[in-house]
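Person: Show me a sequence?

Helper:
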Amino acid sequence: MYLGVRAVIAKSIARIHKGNLVNHGIIPMIFEDPDDYDRIEKGDELEVNGLLDQMQTKVVEIRNVTKNVTFKARLELSDSELEVISCGGQLRYLKKQLEETPAQEGNNE
């Protein structure tokens, strides 16, 4: 999060690590075809167009700009995890929830 990482693409992600990524607003993605992992090299530039729309389908098309090829990754996320990521992480999600909750007036009994 502090390094500017927006997404992680891996062959697999441990449940606890996935939860930490979601809490920090980082999108965890799994290669749809694990062989695509070996086709990416250090320094390759990856691009995703229309990420927010693609996230709703839970399949994201990623373009390797350096090699001019595309591959797909899937998001193994629940709807609530998608909402947390869309807000930018757990803290921003909670802040949004608090802002949407009407202020409760004190009881004057």
Notes: The helical segments are 15-23, 51-57, 79-87, 90-100.
